[in-house]
């Protein structure tokens, strides 16, 4: 799942943005939600709005609001990430990742044709379960942050939708030339193979071609995604409501 590992480059966080007047009504509508008891009762935390993503330009946007619970759920689905008393650094890293997810999700929701199929959601759900030592451990982490099975299913569905959108937007337009394959084989593949397997015969270019092409393709896709993400952030209206 690409968005699990998608992180910010070495840039400083964007400064908080002052809410624009057109967001006033949106904030009023959400006030009642914010006053409800937290879904994170297991930690005794009162949920709160943390940020909005394009709330002023997306009518009826379900993916615009980011709550403190969203950040805890992001951390809970990251193996080996501490959940007790998360640091400001961990929460801000989770916030930036969730912002990126929401930016791409908002674009993905404009294409109904790429809506996830039930078997795709099942495969993705199994992927997340297998990232943990046991299903029981994942369930325990979900319980600690108030992440219900229904909400977990919704998060998985959103991430599948994001993955399908990224593949649809970028994979079909990636072209790997013969020269690129030959250059990579000469300058990277052979040297790396010698380093990892010093006593083995290096595969020929033809034998390694498919592997090299896949490596170059995924590299170009990742570069395109980061560029798309950075451009989307520059154009987005991200409002920090409560720093974490």
- What is the CA–CA distance across the termini? 26 Å
Low-confidence stretches: 4-44
Give the strand content: under 5%
Largest sheet: 3 strands, antiparallel
Mean pLDDT value: 84
Our count of helices gives 9
Number of strands: 3
Output the strand order for the largest sheet.
2-1-3
Helix content: 55-70%
Structural class: mainly alpha
Reading the helices and strands in chain order gives: HHEEHHHHHHHE
Radius of gyration: 21 Å
Broad shape: globular
Secondary structure blueprint with pairings:
Elements: H1 2-5, H2 24-34, E1 49-53, E2 65-67, H3 68-76, H4 88-108, H5 118-130, H6 135-144, H7 149-170, H8 178-196, H9 205-235, E3 238-240
Antiparallel strand pairs: 1-2, 1-3
Explain this structure to me?
By secondary structure, the chain is mainly α. It contains nine helices and three strands; from the N terminus they run ααββαααααααβ. The chain has a three-stranded antiparallel beta sheet with strand order 2-1-3. α3 packs across α4, α4 packs across α7 and α5 crosses α7. It is globular and about 60 Å long.
Descriptive tags:
9 helices, mainly alpha, single chain, globular, 244 residues, 57% helix
Quick take:
The chain has 244 residues and is mainly alpha-helical.
